[in-house]
Amino acid sequence: MEAGAFGQAAQERAAAEVEAEIGRLCERLAEGLAMGLDEGREMVGGAMAEFLVDFFETVRAKGSRPGMRGMVALPMLVHGAETGDPAPARPLAVVHLLWWAAARYLDDLTDVPGAPPAGNTAVAKRVLTALAVGGQLPARLVADLPVPDAVRCGLAGEVSRAWLDAVDGQLRDLTDRPSAATPASVLRGYAGKTGAPYAMAAASAARLAGAGDDRAGGWRAFGRRLGVLRQLVNDQRDLASGRHEDLANGTATYLLAHLLSALPAGRRREALALHAGARHSACARAELTAWMLDDDVLDGYAASVAPLIGHAHDLLGLLGGDPAFVRELHDLVDETAGRLPGLRLAVA
């Protein structure tokens, strides 16, 4: 066993194996035969296969493989912490990626300015396919696992909980206006839209390992915290890349809410005016970005994020488990935190 029990090299191999497994699933889907589909379901199966191929191409194009590795690693590390063996949780890593393949498309559909209307046939097809990929494929995968009925029921409950919590968070994200948003309200939305699937992955792995409700709840809380940190990273990547999609969409991000909460009334009105203009003006986006990435603002931002990171580590300390895998989970938190602004570390 390599140093760290399930270190980055092992996690990369696991991510490659999960991607290959989904590739084999795509081949069966294209034939209309996978996941218990009856013959003659080539239409939906082919659409899902194409959808997943596009997802992995997007991951590669956007340089998101480190994030995908984390999605795969989380349930396997939690199962390793519970049992010493990460391998049985690989199907849950597949479920986690299927969920994100669907959620990423649905999120992009609401975020991209000038996106085609929902009545557009191509968009309608993709929305239906996303729902099948993120909802029905995970449900069938869980149903096919060779586990006791009580465990299967618990896993199905985690998938359902994740969808409801994530939709709640996404709705908050869509309706929370910068003028009314606070750092606390933004974090509540993040706990749903990004925290929920990570919570599902962690709690599901614990349930698969035989953990009871209380312990699964502890892992769910940890996963949710990790997901929030990853959403903060996504926000930073958007700024660092120069895409500025959040500003173009008028999204109330945590960094923006932190900036607004720290400004006196007059400067706050100026910032809100810039934010309104940023929807259509590259100059306004650039000026507001400079405000958000000011050293003093980032110092305060880092101080506000530090307790979130500390809480994730504290949860791991309380949960315990196989020390080698718990250590890797601590590293996963630190690796995520290392991509945040204001911590003076490289942005991935």
UniProtKB/TrEMBL annotation:
GO terms for molecular function: prenyltransferase activity. Keywords: Transferase. GO terms for biological process: isoprenoid biosynthetic process. It comes from the Bacteria. InterPro entries: Isoprenoid_synthase_dom_sf (IPR008949), Polyprenyl_synt (IPR000092). Gene3D superfamilies: Farnesyl Diphosphate Synthase. Pfam families: polyprenyl_synt. The keyword Transferase applies. Transmembrane segments: none annotated. Belongs to the FPP/GGPP synthase family. This is Polyprenyl synthetase. It comes from Actinomadura verrucosospora.
